[in-house]
Amino acid sequence: MRRVYLISLIALLYLILTSLYFVFKPTRSSEFSSLFSNSKLSEITTNGSEQYDKEVIMGFLGNKTEKAELGRATWRFLHTMMGRFPESPSPQERQSLHDFMMLFSRLYPCGECAVHFNKLLKTYPPQTSSRLAASQWLCAMHNKVNERVHKPIYDCSDILSKYPCGCDDRLEDTSSSTTVNK
């Protein structure tokens, strides 16, 4: 069973990274290149959350089994990620998590799920002030989804212990950034 979760998680990560590659892949088209001129880039970064107020990219998934499998793997991935988020994140780390969640809601492979999650994000924006805040926020979002699909509600009080990743917590501090030893 663990192998299935691991394979699903790896497949989900591969899909996300591949999607991001094609979204941001530079082309030779001068029309596309002009989007990244300094003036356009500053417009994008100064508009804040408006850049995320777009429709989802993916279509609906017709296969209920695939949709359920994707959902389980996604929640495991997201809960594990929140459990690994820094306890006291820097402003850049907070922004990265916020941006990830906003883009994730547009790129999620199930378009129907993405539409619903996108609506949740507009009502309940990601909480990124700490590991606890992020994990509690995600658990609350998971429960909102569970309510909608008539599944049981999780007790969020010990959510961090429910999704251990088995990661190596040893850190090596290098000048201005922190890296994880392998």
UniProtKB/TrEMBL annotation:
Segments traversing the membrane: 6-24
**Keywords, in A-Z order:** Disulfide bond, FAD, Flavoprotein, Membrane, Oxidoreductase, Transferase, Transmembrane, Transmembrane helix
Please list the GO terms describing molecular function: flavin adenine dinucleotide binding; flavin-dependent sulfhydryl oxidase activity; transferase activity
The Swiss-Prot or TrEMBL record lists the needed cofactor(s) as: FAD
Per the record, the domain of life is Eukaryota
Q: Does the keyword Hydrolase apply?
A: no
Q: Which InterPro entries match?
A: ALR/ERV, ERV/ALR_sulphydryl_oxid_sf, ERV/ALR_sulphydryl_oxidase
Q: What is this protein called?
A: Sulfhydryl oxidase
Organism expressing this protein natively: Mucor velutinosus
- Report the gene name: OST3
